[in-house]
C-alpha cells in the first residue's frame, strides 16, 4: 500500500506559513489557524499545544507539521512538530481485556501493522475476575486509583515493548483507540463501575469522546478514543466485534457470539440488531479447574479418546502442566462420546482406569505424575465438570432465549460469528457435541479471532467507521437476560450434554448412536 491510501482517524499535514514581520504582528496561534481555515474551518487549539508553539515555529522557520482529528463539526489539533513529518504518522489499537491486553502499532499512512504485543492485565493483582475488582474499588477512592494505575501501567508497558520492537517512540503515536468491556473502560478512566452491577444496571457513561492520553498518565502524546458501550454487559468490545462481523450491512441473518467471563451475543442483519449479555463464568478460560490454566505453553489444548485410550496435545509440545478452555471442551466431548461420563456429566468409573477417586471425589486423570511436566497428577474433577456445565448451560440458554424472543429457529441463522480467544482455538465439533453452540452446518461458522482488537484497528485506520460506531450504538436493542422469568428453568434443561432435547442436536445424536451411546 502506498502513502495516503487510507482515511485514518487523524490527519497529518505540512504547512509553510509566512512569518510575522513588516507590520504583520498577528499572534502565532492565529497565524496557524488562519492557514487552516479554508480547508478545516473552525480548529481548536489546546493549551498544551499553545505552550509548544514558541519557540518551535520560529526555530522551524514556520515550516511545521500538524496532526488533526475531526471531533463532531470541528477539528482539533493533536500535535505540532517542526519540519515535514508527514511520513511519520502512527497510532495504536488496543483490546483492553480483563485478563490480557493486546496492542498494535499502526502506520496511519498505509494501515500497515508495525508491531503487536500482549500482556496480562496488571489489574489481576486486585482480583482474578472483574467482580472482585469491582468490590475492591467500590466506595474506596484510593483503591479505584490503584486499579486505574494498574490499567495505565499495562498500556504503558505495551507501548514500551512496541518501542523496542519497532524503534518508534511511543510519543510519536498520535491516536489510541481502546476497545474493552464497559467495566474496563470505567477503570481506565478512574470511574467507579459499581452502578453497572447495581439495579438498574446503568453505567456512569456509554461514550467518552476524545480524551487527552497524557491526562490519564499514558506515555503517548496524542488522543485516546474508547469504543462506546451499549449497556452494562454490552461494551465497546462487542461494538468492535460487530464492526468486524458486519451483521448490520448484510441481508442474511447473523449471530455474533463472544463467550468469555461474560457471554455477549447479537442477532440481526441490516434491518434489526438485538443483543443480550450475561455472566458466563471463567470456565472457558480454564479458570475453574484446580489444574486449569490459560492458553500458554504446557496447557493441554486438544484431547482425543480412541478405543478408550486418551491422547492429548499441549501448546508448544511440552509435557502437560494443566488444561485450557479448548482442552476442557475436547475432554468433555470425547468422554461423552466414549461413555466415560453420562449425559449429566457424571463419571462412569468402570469405563476407564483413568477415572480415579481423590478426596472422596471422582475425576479423570489426564496426566499422571510421570506424564506431567511438574510431577503432579493432573485431574479434571466432578466439581470442575459441574462448574463447566453451568457455564455451558448459561451460554447456550442465552443463545436459545435470544433466538426464541425473535421467533427464529437455530437453522434460520445463516452465519454464526465466533469471537474471542476461546472461539479461535476451540474445536468446533467438540463445542457442538457438548451443546455450547447450536448444531448448524459447519460452513456457517466464522471464527473472527480477536474481534475487539480488529475493530479498534478498523476504526483507527478508517474515520468513516465513526458513523457506523454511532449507528451501532443507537440501533442495538438490548435484552436483559436476568429479567427472563424462566431463565433458570431453561438453564437446568441445558445442563445436560448436549441438551435434554436431543433433536436440537441431530449430528451429535447420530454420533452418539454410532458409538452405541443411544438407541
Note down, in words, how this protein is organized.
By secondary structure, the chain is α/β, with parallel strands linked by helices. The protein has four domains: 10-82, Ubiquitin-like (UB roll) (Roll); 90-226, 2-Layer Sandwich (Nucleotidyltransferase, domain 5), CATH 3.30.420.480; 246-282 and 388-511, 2-Layer Sandwich (Nucleotidyltransferase, domain 5); 285-381, no CATH class. The chain is 32% helix and 25% strand. It contains 14 helices and 22 strands. Helix 6 (236-245) packs across helix 11, helix 6 crosses helix 12 (465-475) and helix 8 crosses helix 13. It is elongated, with a radius of gyration of 26 Å.
Question: Which short descriptors sum up this protein?
Answer:
RACo_linker; six-stranded mixed beta sheet; RACo_C; 519 residues; DUF4445 domain-containing protein; Corrinoid_activation_enz; alpha/beta; 22 strands; Nucleotidyltransferase, domain 5; Ubiquitin-like (UB roll); 4 domains
Q: What's the short story on this structure?
A:
The chain has helices spanning 28-40, 47-59, 130-137, 141-166, 182-188, 236-245, 325-338, 382-405, 420-425, 428-433, 451-461, 465-475, 487-493, 506-514, and strands at residues 10-16, 43-44, 63-71, 74-82, 90-96, 100-107, 113-120, 173-180, 210-212, 223-226, 254-259, 262-268, 273-279, 299-306, 309-314, 322-323, 355-358, 361-367, 378-381, 415-419, 445-449, 477-480. It is of the alpha/beta class and 519 residues long. This is DUF4445 domain-containing protein.
